[in-house]
């Protein structure tokens, strides 16, 4: 099992990279500027006051409150996880939630009325950011970890 210190360090690095990259994007991609990288991958600035894929734009403060509760619940779950994969997955999800919550708190609009900065644009998928990537990868790692836990428990019971 990873130590709490290691989980916090991983989450902190992801949050710092996320916030740094968003600050860079706001400055470098102002006035509609885009940076084409490879194939359909480009950097293009977008703002989202709602939830994933720009849904629920008028519920920004509510989404912010839910995110605050989620950060607390996910943090506790990561520290109490019973397998390393589950702990790492929860740490990644928590880091992503903190990164996007920081945007809602500090990026315009007032307390919890801000917007999440998105800038990674594949042009065939909704625009996203490092925090969103951490949440997605973390969810995958968590699913694998929970699946292994389940199979291990069934083996222990002699059902697999």
Structure report:
The structure is a single chain. The chain is mainly alpha-helical and 160 residues long. It has one domain (4-27, 36-60, 82-154). It is built from 4 helices and 3 strands; from the N terminus they run H-E-E-H-H-E-H. It has helices at 4-28, 60-80, 84-106, 130-157; strands at residues 34-38, 41-48, 116-121. The radius of gyration is 17 Å and the shape is globular. The protein starts with a helix and ends with a helix.
Question: What is the C-alpha radius of gyration, as a whole number of Å?
Answer: 17 Å
Number of domains: 1
Total DSSP helices: 4
Order of helices and strands: HEEHHEH
Hey, roughly how much beta strand do the residues contain?
5-15%
Strand tally: 3
* Outline type: globular
Which spans have pLDDT < 50 for at least 5 consecutive residues? Answer: none
For the residues shown, what is the average pLDDT? 88
Write out the strand line-up for the largest beta sheet, numbering strands in chain order. Answer: 1-2-3
User: Biggest sheet, open or closed, and with what strands and sense?
Assistant: 3 strands, antiparallel
Distance between the termini: 25 Å
Name the structural class: mainly alpha
Q: What percentage of residues falls in helices of 4 or more residues?
A: 55-70%
GO cellular component, one term: membrane
InterPro entries: Peptidase_A8 (IPR001872)
Transmembrane segments: 59-78, 85-102, 122-146
Keywords: Cell membrane, Hydrolase, Membrane, Protease, Transmembrane, Transmembrane helix
